[in-house]
Amino acid sequence: MITKIVAFIVLNLVVTLVTASYLESGGVKKFINTLIEYVTSEDFDQENPDQKTNLRPIIGIVAKPAINKSPYTTFIMAAYSKYAQSSGARVVPIPYDLSDEEIQFRMEGINGLILPGGADWLMEKNNTFTKYTSKVKLMIDHAKRMNDEGIYFPVLGICLGFEQLILFEEPVYEIFGEFDSRDFPTSLKFEVDAKSTKMFQNIDVSQVKDKNLTYHHHFRGFNVSLFTDTPSIKEAYRITSTSSDRIGQKFVSSVEHYNYPFYGLQFHPEKPSYIWIKDKNIPHSPEAIKFSQDLIINFVKECRKNFNAFESRKIENKLMIENAFLNLTLTTSQDIYLF
Ligand SMILES: *[C@@H]1O[C@H](CO)[C@@H](O)[C@H](O)[C@H]1NC(C)=O
Ligand SMILES: *[C@@H]1O[C@H](CO)[C@@H](O)[C@H](O)[C@H]1NC(C)=O
Ligand SMILES: *[C@@H]1O[C@H](CO)[C@@H](O)[C@H](O)[C@H]1NC(C)=O
Ligand SMILES: *[C@@H]1O[C@H](CO)[C@@H](O)[C@H](O)[C@H]1NC(C)=O
């Protein structure tokens, strides 16, 4: 505010002192116009008077490799962006094939990140990360750095995104097991008191323990005993819940990082409200919708603790996901944004 008042005074002085002939010269005009633009620009600070709750959070969502969608190279299922938007966040896509500099620029303007699910390969045969996963690792390394520097930066990994978070602690492919859990709604078994977690702390989890409200769609998963037998992973992530597949094999269903606001869900919380493909067992009951909504409200609440911002509304608007091409496919992806 003070800088605005100073600018206003300077502007008045300049207008008074400069004679008409000077005004004709382009340089002075440009200077005055810049001052006018600055004084009349919207002030972000006024919208966050207490600086404790970000009232205009922006969440980044990683866009994954798109196959046979030329000229587009990456995509985001709209269900993920609608899910984040339903809790009062706006969405900026982060196509994985952007330059490292552009990824860094976007990371520093957003208030949290979602790593979506999908069926991509995470590792090459020689045990190195694929290009997609290497780029996501860059983002997570950056998120860790921000947190280390005192900038609270939350990350939510869903299904494949969750698997990426774990493998970034140590790329031990062996801890994956094969599970019968495709197109599979099931319940959560809490391994810790839900009230002691960040994602579930204020949620009534009684329903989700007994009813099949969470939708799983994966054939790989984390074998609980191998997960906890791997020190680097066990020390980084706390298992908050597990589930069992169709034949009773137990896998990790949700985790929280001990030191960072990083959350992983093996199930798909974005599907109950937004995916309506026929012949799928996605739960659409009011209880399933409520549980999904509670989760994203909690995650966006975490993102509201972050105050990263882009320089101007103009830049924000240019980056918003709504600028992208929305393609209504009739597949399980339903509508997708292409980049
Ligand atoms: C691993 O395999 C990928 C894909 O085949 C290749 O691009 C990469 O150079 C390989 N890395 C090493 C260290 O061999
Ligand atoms: C999990 O790992 C244990 C220990 O190696 C093994 O006995 C069990 O079969 C594995 N389960 C699955 C589903 O991979
Ligand atoms: C949940 O699914 C399991 C099969 O995985 C089934 O045995 C059980 O009856 C279901 N529970 C409810 C409440 O529908
Ligand atoms: C959009 O989706 C439709 C239906 O799946 C498809 O035929 C069309 O080619 C898509 N457009 C693009 C640009 O991918």
From TrEMBL:
Catalytic activity: (6S)-5,6,7,8-tetrahydrofolyl-(gamma-L-Glu)(n) + (n-1) H2O = (6S)-5,6,7,8-tetrahydrofolate + (n-1) L-glutamate
Top-level taxonomic group: Eukaryota
Gene3D superfamilies recorded: 3.40.50.880
Active-site residues, record numbering mapped to chain: C159, H268
The protein's name in its UniProt record: folate gamma-glutamyl hydrolase
GO biological process: tetrahydrofolylpolyglutamate metabolic process
Species name: Euplotes crassus
EC number: 3.4.19.9
MF GO annotations: gamma-glutamyl-peptidase activity
Start and end residues of each Glutamine amidotransferase domain: 82-271
Pfam families from the UniProt entry: GATase
